[in-house]
Amino acid sequence: MAKEELRSISRNLQELQKKLSLLIDSFQNNSKVVAFMKSPVGQYLDRHPFLAFTLLVFIVMSAVPVGFFLLIVILTSLAALLGVIILEGLVIAVGGLSLLCILCGLGFVSLVMSGMMIASYVVASSLINYWFSPRPLIQQNTNGDFLPAMKSADFEGLYQE
């Protein structure tokens, strides 16, 4: 039973790998992506993947604060139409400074998050490669000779219920 589960997991991982490679190929063959990757910025980000990933995390995380700032600007502009011009300048200045502080904090957080995500990716991929790679079971004897850790007779009863 355990042998069948191991084969099933291996087959599922291979199917997942095929699907992911098809998805990546579809992104890489997109004409807009190809045009961007040929630009100097795209080539720079291609040579610096950590920076590209950090930039992606920063853009995703900064969407909400920038959206709130734009909402405040629109609301104060509407208030300016009603005659509260001095208040508009004050609100936009305070909002701009607070947005600058928030974006600086999000830049640091995105660096930390992308570092943690890359580290967890490396650890997870190493563990998966370690768990699912075929390797012989050997142990070292006291003489320095390597002996099989289990005899073939021990393997026969290992997967039986």
TrEMBL record:
The gene is LDAF1. It is found in: Endoplasmic reticulum membrane; Lipid droplet. The chain crosses the membrane at residues 50-74, 81-108. GO terms for cellular component: endoplasmic reticulum membrane; lipid droplet. The keyword Membrane applies. Keywords: Endoplasmic reticulum, Lipid droplet, Membrane, Transmembrane, Transmembrane helix. It comes from the Eukaryota. InterPro entries: LDAF1 (IPR029709). Pfam families: Promethin (PF16015). Belongs to the LDAF1 family. PANTHER family: LIPID DROPLET ASSEMBLY FACTOR 1, PROMETHIN. It is a multi-pass membrane protein. This is Lipid droplet assembly factor 1. The keyword Transmembrane helix applies.
